[in-house]
Amino acid sequence: MELNLANSTSPEMLKLHFVHHLNRVYFGKKYLQEHVPNLIGISSLRKLQLAIHETWEDICNQVKRLQEIYVLIDEQPANENCVPIIAVFKDAFEPQDYGADTNLINDVDIILYLQLLEHINLTSYRLLKVLAAALNYKEAEQLLLESFDEAIDNDKLFAMIADEYVKR
Q1: pLDDT tens per residue, range 44-97
Q2: Pick from 6, 28, 119: which is nearest to 81 by CA?
Q3: What is the CATH number of the domain that holds 80?
Q4: Is 3 domain-assigned?
Q5: Is residue 32 part of a domain?
Q6: Which of 10, 56, 59, 130 has its CA 20 to 30 A from that of 120?
Q7: Rounded to an integer, what distance in angstroms lies between the CA atom of residue 113 and that of residue 128?
């Protein structure tokens, strides 16, 4: 599906864009919902394990919100088989063996990928909120705001863990 927002801001085109990006986020979240718990067993730092678990709980809540949005806009999730989040994070779920301090490297990799995830989330939710506002999807906009706020909190959490972990 080729999308070009600059050519048309008709409600039909805006909805196509909205659903397209909603699908990308939804199927990315479904992938993460299934795979993020595996990161807990790979990480060695207890605070990181707790943060990963908290992030997983947020992902589960976000999936529920996204499902609510589909109902609100009378659409069904459609896997477009083009989910950048999945491509980016497949690498994060495979621990690397770098030699002497593999735990440190794996923990740093996990922190990096989870912070990258949150930045992708922030950008995705920001765009979806703009499109929802343009389409007057007030309830969807609120649900997206809640997910956006969680992404901000998770980003801060992983930044604090990274600072503490590297300085220890």
Answers
A1: 889 999 999 999 999 999 999 999 999 999 999 998 766 666 777 776 666 555
A2: 28
A3: 1.20.1260.10
A4: no
A5: yes
A6: 10
A7: 22
